[in-house]
């Protein structure tokens, strides 16, 4: 409970008084949103985090373009930090290094010169030694940024402007993938083949109603820089539809037979998840052989060269290489999972995207920036048109203009004459010339151009050149107006540009797509015991049983839900609308006890405010459902066996909602309390078993404007029941209420004017 603390009068000292709890809550929210929007999550439009966007923009500022010499990375990092990104230089340099690694990015954005790390896990050289410049494809992210086509904002010290997003011409989010860990959420986009992504983008532009399945005729699946084999091709459609899932990646392995009865198992490509850990993979292989976890291996050699993987495993004589390969997949990271979570920012808020919605936001962005680009170009040509029309007219009136210039007292008088026909301060040789000059009505821009025109421009050939320029200007204006006035023309222009980028930069696919579930791979399911913890803010996490036992009392007092489970279990969440949502325990992040965990809304689409029960269901369990307007039923939990992540758990009448779901024990009576204070006790034998698609039967006969507040089980030895009324405990004798038949009105035990909260029961 908050206490009033007497503080000195600080009103005249410009000091604000704030509640500590409220201030800490708001500060944490501000911090979380800052990390989400300004540090950790990329924008779906350009696929870049702020540090990456600022680095590329700073490099453009420095003019470190592909046709220029390399510049020291320390200089680039310094400019980025000093102008746009006031954080540690390490984070800036690390992002530069990643954008320059061909084993990390499908299309590298930075051309690195020097030691930029290796797939083995070797770090890059210090920034004072390495050099870099932009890759040609980076210009496709930056082109026309000076044409007011993206929103700009002031930098951290309000001395410079920086873009909120780059005008990316290709879907960088999907091509180069995205990864980031924020507060309570993370993102992990797989990389893709540029040519396939552009083909899919064009297909979406041509048919916005295209399905994910149809998009996959163009976008076959992820294409990782390290190659490898995707082993669950048949699950990709579901992953691309939901934006979540696990891609099973295997190393690419060749088997060569030697004349001595031995075989060489040659690892040519490794899973993308092993970048930076190739050395650890080899050490792990050697450890498994040493500990006799894998038998049949004579020797392991790493003969990889720069840019090419070649790990040779020599078998012992007469060892079946196929069985050995299956053991390697089973016991090592040569088969690994890439966890897809397509979370990205849109309008500074995190959203879960799928394949189609990612392309949709990119295309909408293209339509926006192309409209702005061509509006900019149109305005530029309209300005030229105005000036050129003035010149063409001036050629026909040049004698009068020259006479005005000669007879004027100053340039101001001539300009006034050209714009308004005012000849007051000009002496013309003839009245006729003066009358002609009075008809002048050039614009200010045209008058300025005429006065600044050099004499050699008066020759006939120059007029022909101006006429040629005018025709070209009008051609461009017509083209730009056509594009701006017709969405189909705008889309055609976008498609042409996308095709140009594809033709110029696309490469062959590296990653193979297969369905390998039928392979005789020896898999040993590792099932872990965990505790699932949910707090009052609906953040969920799992912890190790040892941690739970050491902190049991603290956990039980702080968490609203604690579930003993294994990583093979599923957690069930029921909501007021009668739906059941399921989360795999294996998908819930395992954290330290002190960590916040992950918001339930990140793992499933349930409305957190409507959750009424979270539990692990067993096949032989039974659940009791009660609705706000008096329907009740028992449902066997086997009714909820489904592979789907969301199913209807019960049927509801209009405006009704589920208020409580309980697991019955051995109690034989149930008590109900309504908003108007009516209590009813019935035997649990009167509650029927029904299917999940049934509504239930009437529990209590409700009066007008009445509804159920709470229910509770009553055991045979219980004498009283406690009711929370306006925060006060009311103890009622069960015998005074009596036992009645189901669908009875019950007995009023609390005045209808009171605010009934519910029953008080022991946990």
Automatic annotation (TrEMBL):
SUPFAM superfamilies: GyrA/ParC C-terminal domain-like, Type II DNA topoisomerase. The active site is at 129 (o-(5'-phospho-dna)-tyrosine intermediate). GO terms for biological process: DNA topological change. Transmembrane segments: none annotated. GO terms for cellular component: cytoplasm; DNA topoisomerase type II (double strand cut, ATP-hydrolyzing) complex. Belongs to the type II topoisomerase GyrA/ParC subunit family. PANTHER family: DNA GYRASE SUBUNIT A, CHLOROPLASTIC_MITOCHONDRIAL, DNA GYRASE/TOPOISOMERASE SUBUNIT A. This is DNA topoisomerase (ATP-hydrolyzing).
